[in-house]
Amino acid sequence: MEEGNLNKKVLVAMSGGVDSSVAAFLLKEKARLNDEVGQGYDVSGAHMICWEGCDTNEDRRDAMRVAAKLDIPFHVFDFRKEYKERVFDYMVREYAAGRTPNPDVMCNSEIKFGIFLERAIEMGFDFIATGHYVKKEGTSLKIAKDLNKDQSYFLWRLDPEQISRALFPIGDYLKSEVREIAKNSGLVTADKKDSQGLCFVGKLDFQEFLREYIPKKEGSIVNSSGEVLGTHDGAHFFTPGQRHGIKLGGFAEPLYVAETDSRANTVVVAQGADDPVLYKKEIEITESNLPKNLPEKIFARIRYRQPLQPIHIEGPKVIFDSPQRGVAPGQSIVFYSGEDLLGGAVIK
């Protein structure tokens, strides 16, 4: 947790889960311990409504209960309009164009550390805090203590100003320790399951969800030789590396999406997870925010929790030491040096 940022007002983004609940608790506890010398944080909580139906859900009630338990002021922000424009519409546009976006990355930069931070500053807060598993050093981010929960991958778009205004109280804790703190503190979210699925929307059948917003368009499923194996209802509903949703039978090994072509509306599939057509050693990137002076040894991951892979960069190209499976245009590639998050880019 940050030191030296005392006597400051902090607004905690409280999702209604255990992580943000404990983030609020730790900040309030720091305030309590330092209260006699006037060095504690002035802590408030806030819950964001970002999707239709979320204004009366269990998460909001749980966030309110935790705020009441901690005896901190509680605010509710309605960001449904902004979320639709900045995250949801972006996601649909990307899929319709044949790319695989990462809405959670955009949600963090545009919502949690975007308009939520802006609203907090307007209200007189010095910092915002979240329940992300990540560590901060100055205006840079580092991998969290809990390597299985580290969320630095989703925060690569944050700029130094956003980072300077953010606190990450649980970055130095394991998930098991977070739950133990919640139990010992009597927080109602102590045993609550982690949320899954699209940011703020929750778990859903994503392909069926997309079909409500993007028109179907029948096309061919082919193998790497161009042989037609069957049909699909839209190349934009598929992403490289995907196994489920390919409705073809009669094959000895599972079929995986190797690549898609939205213009030709074709889906190329591979038989078995070891088919070479699934792998790429070189990729092009765009929208990079990497610093000019890079360390000699750089590592990267192309998906959340993937083990870090050694790479080197040549202009807009990233070259991996070993081929990578399921490289998807539109997804994020995030770069590291040791524990330090260097930045990221979008796979082109």
TrEMBL record:
Residues the UniProt record annotates as site (Interaction with tRNA): H132, Q331
Region of interest (Interaction with tRNA), ranges: 149-151, 303-304
Residue ranges of the region described as Interaction with target base in tRNA: 102-104
SUPFAM superfamilies cross-referenced by the UniProt entry: Adenine nucleotide alpha hydrolases-like
Domain tRNA-specific 2-thiouridylase MnmA-like central: 207-271
Domain of life: Bacteria
InterPro entries in the record: MnmA-like, MnmA-like_C, MnmA-like_central, MnmA-like_central_sf, Rossmann-like_a/b/a_fold
Location (main, coarse): cytoplasm
A GO biological-process term: tRNA wobble position uridine thiolation
Any single GO CC term annotated in Swiss-Prot or TrEMBL for this entry: cytoplasm
Record-listed ATP binding positions: A13, M14, S15, G16, G17, V18, D19, S20, M48, G131
Broadest EC class assigned to this enzyme: transferase
Gene3D superfamilies registered for this protein in UniProt: Adenine nucleotide alpha hydrolases-like domains, HUPs, Translation factors
Enzyme Commission number(s) of this protein: 2.8.1.13
Keyword annotations: ATP-binding, Cytoplasm, Disulfide bond, Nucleotide-binding, RNA-binding, Transferase, tRNA processing, tRNA-binding
Single Gene Ontology MF annotation: tRNA-uridine 2-sulfurtransferase activity
Active site: C107, C199
HAMAP family attached to this UniProt entry: tRNA_thiouridyl_MnmA
Family: Belongs to the MnmA/TRMU family.
PANTHER family for the chain: MITOCHONDRIAL TRNA-SPECIFIC 2-THIOURIDYLASE 1, TRNA 5-METHYLAMINOMETHYL-2-THIOURIDYLATE -METHYLTRANSFERASE
Descriptive protein name: tRNA-specific 2-thiouridylase MnmA
Lineage: Bacteria, Candidatus Giovannoniibacteriota
